[in-house]
């Protein structure tokens, strides 16, 4: 049982914490400097940085896990791997992803019920549960497993089916439950109640708009991740700077960390 896993597990037992998602070494060390207790990778950030779409099986298991492992090596913080559908349709694929994540030193990982097929994006109920069950069997006591359903991100805004899936994931051994894209606080509260006492992750907040962390905590949420939000925020800053440059304004560096500042946070080369 690794220290990072134990620390990460204990973070979910009380309170509510923010777990931001860096996508490269620089973003990882800067976020670690700000004092967050844990970090997570972001499949969107990695995919877009490599020029491929997110959620379409464009990234390999090896690339995705190595990105998360790099974040861990650079920061020493517990890292949760955003590992999409577990890199294959079968329960055995998901178990293999768990084993590889443990070997890489990750503290946690998520397994989604997505298929990477835009025409049929969500696994059937029984298949989805079997996949999480296999992952949970491999994960038990060694890495924190998040069972995730992406109904609301894939044109299936069915709260009853979402809760049914999350409850089934909890029953077969998922440690944390997660349904990104929930529409409002009432839906978040319903999910928390349905899977209690298992902890719930929320991405950013309800789709109605951001709410203070204290509101999510009061609803019983244990963990707040950001997915690709920080990557998109960084790209937004770049687009804003590009537009100012196009207009002839070269004063674009206000608030940006210096090269020396980031270098000082990176490991020293021999």
Descriptive labels:
270 residues
Task: Please tell me about this protein's structure.
- By secondary structure, this protein is an alpha/beta fold.
- Helices cover 46% and strands 11% of the residues.
- It has helices spanning 3-11, 25-33, 43-49, 61-75, 91-103, 125-139, 159-171, 185-195, 213-218, 229-246, 259-265, and strands spanning 17-19, 39-40, 79-82, 108-112, 144-148, 176-178, 200-203, 223-225.
- Strands 1-8-7-6-5-4-3-2 form an 8-stranded parallel beta sheet, sandwiched between helices.
**Run of helices and strands:** HEHEHHEHEHEHEHEHEHH
**Content of β-strand:** 5-15%
End-to-end Cα distance: 31 Å
Number of DSSP helical runs: 11
**What is the count of β-strands?**
8
Helical/strand content category:
alpha/beta
The side-by-side strand order for the widest beta sheet comes to 1-8-7-6-5-4-3-2
Uncertain segments are: none
Biggest sheet, in brief?
A: 8 strands, parallel
Work out the helicity level: 40-55%
Radius of gyration: 18 Å
The best one-word shape is globular
Provide mean pLDDT, rounded: 97
Summarize this entry quickly:
This protein is an alpha/beta fold and 270 residues long. Helices cover 46% and strands 11% of the residues.
């Amino acid at each position: 049982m690794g220290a990072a896993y134990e620390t990460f597990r204990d973070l979910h037992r009380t309170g509510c914490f923010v777990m931001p998602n860096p996508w490269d070494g620089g973003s990882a060390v800067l976020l670690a400097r700000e004092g967050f207790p844990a970090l997570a990778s972001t499949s969107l950030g990695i995919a877009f940085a490599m020029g491929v779409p997110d959620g379409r099986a464009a990234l390999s298991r090896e690339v995705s896990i190595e990105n998360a492992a790099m974040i861990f090596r650079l920061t020493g913080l517990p890292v949760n791997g955003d590992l999409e559908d577990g890199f294959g349709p079968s329960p055995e694929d998901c178990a293999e992803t768990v084993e590889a994540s443990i070997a890489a030193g990750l503290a946690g990982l998520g397994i989604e019920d997505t298929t990477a097929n835009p025409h049929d994006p969500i696994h059937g109920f029984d298949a989805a549960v079997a996949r999480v069950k296999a992952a949970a069997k491999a994960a038990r006591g060694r890495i924190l497993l998040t069972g995730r359903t992406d109904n609301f991100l894939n044109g299936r805004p069915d709260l009853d089916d979402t809760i049914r899936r999350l409850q089934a994931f909890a029953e077969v051994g998922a440690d944390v439950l997660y349904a990104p894209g929930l529409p409002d606080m009432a839906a978040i509260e319903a999910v928390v109640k349905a899977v209690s006492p298992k902890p719930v992750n929320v991405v950013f907040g309800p789709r109605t708009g951001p709410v203070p962390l204290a509101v999510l905590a009061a609803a019983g949420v244990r963990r707040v991740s950001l997915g690709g939000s920080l990557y998109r925020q960084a790209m937004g800053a770049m687009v804003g700077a590009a537009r100012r440059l196009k207009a002839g304004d070269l004063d674009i560096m206000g608030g940006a960390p210096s090269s020396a500042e980031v270098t000082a946070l990176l490991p020293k080369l021999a």
